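Example record

One chain of 144 residues, shown exactly as stored in the release files.
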Amino acid sequence: MTAFLVANLAPIMFGSLIVFLLFGYPVAFSLAACGLFFGFVGIELGTINPAFLQSLPLRMFGIMQNDTLLAIPFFTFMGLILERSGMAEDLLDTIGQLFGRDPRRPGLCGDSGGRHAGRHHRRRGRIGDLDGPDLAAHHAALRL
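Predicted structure tokens for this chain:
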């Protein structure tokens, strides 16, 4: 039985990860639980050096000190605050006013630069194309 586990540790680990995910656990927790569990199993079977798990706290603190990776939860939190406070809705209303349907005022980007840059660049230069469905709900002009 031990020889079978040593030979098939990776497929068994992958299968247990799939089972964890099918139970509905979040991906981060499933990966951490499978990694730690099979790390301990590998140590007991003699296939993994225990020094790998001893360096785990140092690696985690090293990742937490990386400024680039710290930006990800901060931007996620900022988006959540903007959505919950209603500021995101206000921003979409403002953009809807800038790119409004008033024929006398084509909006911020308008068609003035499109005559010189050509039709393709005029379409790609419109900010309204980036967030089309939300801007359409706010009565923005979304012509191509």
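Notes: The radius of gyration is 26 Å.
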